[in-house]
Amino acid sequence: MKLYTRTGDEGKTSVIGGRVRKDDSRVEAYGTIDELNSFVGQAAAVALATGQLNELQVELVEIQQELFDCGSDLAFADPEGRTFKMTAEPALRIEGWIDAHTEASPAITRFILPGGSEVSALLHVCRTVCRRAERRVVTLSGELPINGDVLKYINRLSDYFFAAARSANAKLGVSDTEYIRSAEVFRSNDK
């Protein structure tokens, strides 16, 4: 099998059920999700290499599978009447992971800067790329019908990356760096 086809040399690419320009909103959306998936893979490799974050690595690999499902669901030229891979269940599971990572992290009162450990820094890159992917999916949803479960999942996922980044730092004994000019913006639910 050849990796090059030459079919995109004039700026068009195939989607499920047709061809579109490579800068089409659909391609922008699933392409940004693919970019996110690459960063998640890097974060998973670094998490595994620490020898202390195996559970995080397993979560990230599952997220990679689901991101591929999201891209697949967005790749339909005409999504009407299609059976989608993404359902509401993965977003609900992500919420459980967010809660677990939040409980494993110190209380937060101020904004924090991305960084700390290498894996935490990578998870913050994932968070910001995820937010961009979400913007691309929102743009697409304003133009064409999409699987709404993809948008819910991507929205939840950026919160997951924030919580996982903080939890990774805590598990590795690395402090988050607070944004020193931040007022106290987060309040505990205990008060």
List keywords for this structure.
single chain; 191 residues; mainly alpha; Hypothetical Protein Ta1238, Chain: A; two-stranded antiparallel sheet; cobalamin biosynthesis; EC 2.5.1.17; ATP-binding; corrinoid adenosyltransferase activity
Describe the structure.
This protein has helices spanning 25-50, 54-74, 89-103, 118-143, 148-171, and strands at residues 12-15, 18-21, 112-113, 177-178. The relative contact order is 0.17. The chain is mainly alpha-helical and 191 residues long. The protein has a two-stranded antiparallel sheet with strand order 1-2. It has one domain: Hypothetical Protein Ta1238, Chain: A (Up-down Bundle).
Please write out the topology.
Layout: E1 12-15, E2 18-21, H1 25-50, H2 54-74, H3 89-103, E3 112-113, H4 118-143, H5 148-171, E4 177-178
Antiparallel strand pairs: 1-2, 3-4
Helix pairs in contact: 1-2, 1-4, 3-5, 4-5
**Total tally of structural domains:** 1
Tell me roughly what share of residues is in helical segments. Answer: 55-70%
Strand runs, count: 4
Name the strands of the widest sheet in spatial order.
Answer: 1-2
Oligomer: single chain
Short description:
With 191 residues, this protein is mainly alpha-helical. The protein contains five helices and four strands; from the N terminus they run ββαααβααβ.
